Amino acid sequence: MYNGLLLTPNYGNLFNNYLITFEELGMIIISDLLSEDDLGKLNISRNDCILSDKLTLKHNVYLEKHRAKFYKNIIIWTNRNYFI
User: Fold this and answer.
1) Residue 80's pLDDT band (boundaries 50, 70, 90)?
2) Alpha carbon of 33 to those of 10, 48, 79: distances in Å?
3) Which residue, among 19, 3, 33, has the nearest Cα to 11 in the 3D structure?
4) Quick check: 3 and 42 in contact, CB under 8 A?
5) pLDDT tens readout for residues 19-75
6) Which H/E stretch holds residue 21?
7) How far apart are CA 73 and CA 58, in angstroms?
8) Which of 2, 29, 39, 81 is 20 to 30 A away from residue 22, measured at CA?
9) DSSP conformation class of 20
10) How far is CA 11 from CA 18, 69, 79, 83, in A?
């Protein structure tokens, strides 16, 4: 599967664990599982983005699938915490 995204380790780890993803135009989407303190320690801002002129159709196809898994992950964690 094509992703072609070159992310720094802090972004890459969060991305690979579906704790962040990116909108079609490149704006970051951050899971509510991450606190503001977490974001500060990782030097991640809610205003971060990938430059949209760097995103190709292949990137967006991949990101669409990633976003679906990201939102599914939120539902799973929400349901787990609801029953704990």
Assistant:
1) low
2) 15, 18, 13
3) 19
4) no
5) 999 999 999 999 998 999 999 999 999 999 998 888 899 999 999 999 999 999 877
6) strand 20-22
7) 23
8) 81
9) E
10) 10, 16, 25, 30
